[in-house]
Amino acid sequence: MARWRHEPEPPDVVDPTRIVPPGFVFPGTEQLDPREVFAGPGYQAPRQRTEPTAVAALVCAVLSPIPGLGLAALILGYVALRRLRASYDTGHGQAWFAIVVGAATTVGWLWLWWLITQTT
């Protein structure tokens, strides 16, 4: 008498359509909108995001001939570089430009202030 044996199913069946665990986010893609990336034909590269602090530092550096804005550019550039360490955003060049120009104009304003106070 032939007895039908029931074969147990494998305990862990892998779904071939799902190669990453549920809820997994690739590093650097936390802020991307999938509708924007996959909306058009083919793969659309996501737009790069510029650090807003770096932009503010750049504006202050450009306006640094106004007394005090050079120091603001220097501080904002430093803060932008600190924030850019932990992100995939752009703005390194803007932050470094703000630091260099802000430091130069701050030294220039301090030198001019020293000259004025020494002559009077």
Automatic annotation (TrEMBL):
<feature type="domain" description="DUF4190">
    <location>
        <begin position="54"/>
        <end position="110"/>
    </location>
</feature>
<dbReference type="InterPro" id="IPR025241">
    <property type="entry name" value="DUF4190"/>
</dbReference>
<keyword id="KW-0472">Membrane</keyword>
<keyword id="KW-0812">Transmembrane</keyword>
<dbReference type="Pfam" id="PF13828">
    <property type="entry name" value="DUF4190"/>
</dbReference>
<feature type="transmembrane region" description="Helical">
    <location>
        <begin position="54"/>
        <end position="81"/>
    </location>
</feature>
<feature type="transmembrane region" description="Helical">
    <location>
        <begin position="93"/>
        <end position="116"/>
    </location>
</feature>
<protein>
    <submittedName>
        <fullName>DUF4190 domain-containing protein</fullName>
    </submittedName>
</protein>
<keyword id="KW-1133">Transmembrane helix</keyword>
